[in-house]
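Below: protein 1.
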Amino acid sequence: MSSDANPLNLTGTVIKKSQGTYFVRAGDRTLPCAATSRLRKVLVYPTAAPTSRRHRVQAVQAIDQVDPVAVGDLVRFQEAGGETGYITEVLPRRNTLSRRAAMDHGAGGRTTRQGMREQVIVANVDQIVAVLSVAQPAPKWELLDRYLVAAELGNIPTLICLTKADLLTEPEAAEEVLGFPL
């Protein structure tokens, strides 16, 4: 478990999230944490002189993500007592695997496609391994395309693992299914 200059600020990695609770591993222990409300909004400050002592919030804007914390995030948190904590900051991400949220809930619980936000599935990924069967069931090339595009957009290295090649009756059939010589 590491800390900054402030001994109350600890650093850990989000390893699981469930219904607004984030499980943060710091050293050899895991703490359930909640996200502070400041992570769910953007505070806009006016441009002020560098000598100004008081900075007042000019506006509050919604964030452009469904959830500001994702599995894999490196976060700063503080213990809240009782073996729980709260996340105060999400540190910069190396990369993300994300998608546009299916729908966004507007005012009054209405669902709208306007203002769709990003849904980060996982952050700080080392590599994606796309596993695809070449026989039984037949390969779903469109699904592989989606995986590869998402990985490329997230700047994540990808490995393609093809299985069940032994079920193909002829080597030529494998080349035909795969689209390139073996």
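Below: protein 2.
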Amino acid sequence: MFPNALASDKKTARFPEEILGRYRKAMFRVRASNEPLVILDSLAEMQEVLHQVERAAVEEARAQGATWSQVAQALNRTRQAVEARFG
């Protein structure tokens, strides 16, 4: 997990370049490879990065006063599922 993965000002959310770089590298490997195992490995890396970004965004939303119901709506999940996962 990346501490402070999400740094926000009043209007935008920014993620450290190392996180975005990992995602871009994995995406490039998916596009450039014809090898299923390379593609699967790259997709797993992309999923890991997305989970880290999601967690950071949830933490930031909660820190800014969003309710679990609001976070759940944004993620298209139930409040109970979101609170169980991130709470």
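Helices lie at 17-32, 36-63, 68-75, 79-86.
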